[in-house]
Design brief:
This protein has four helices and no strands. The mean pLDDT is about 80. It has about 90 residues and is mainly α. The chain has two domains: about 40 residues; about 50 residues.
């Protein structure tokens, strides 16, 4: 029975180590996002707009009735969002 407890303790220890690494990576990612936002807030706003628009356009593929209505031309909607909302477009 002692070896089972040791195995469970080892798994718990590894889980805590993994959770700590994930927490640290999330913290570093958040710090990076904040620093980019302080340097140029337009980039963050642009990223949110592109993410939202790509999500909405991707619904054309996920929602079956919309896909049947729009058809194969839905890929052009995605490409339009990508090209039109390019951050450096218009410079």
């Amino acid at each position: 029975m002692g070896s089972l407890n040791n195995g469970a303790e080892a798994i718990e220890k590894q889980t805590k180590i993994l959770a700590g690494r994930v927490r640290r990576m999330l913290g570093l990612t958040w710090d990076r996002i904040c620093s980019v936002g302080r340097e140029d807030p337009r980039r963050v706003v642009h990223a949110v707009k592109v993410g939202l628009s790509l999500t909405l356009v991707s619904l054309l593929y996920l929602v079956e009735p919309l896909f049947k209505e729009v058809g194969q031309n839905a890929i052009w909607a995605v490409m339009t969002v990508v090209v039109v909302l390019e951050f450096t477009a218009g410079n």
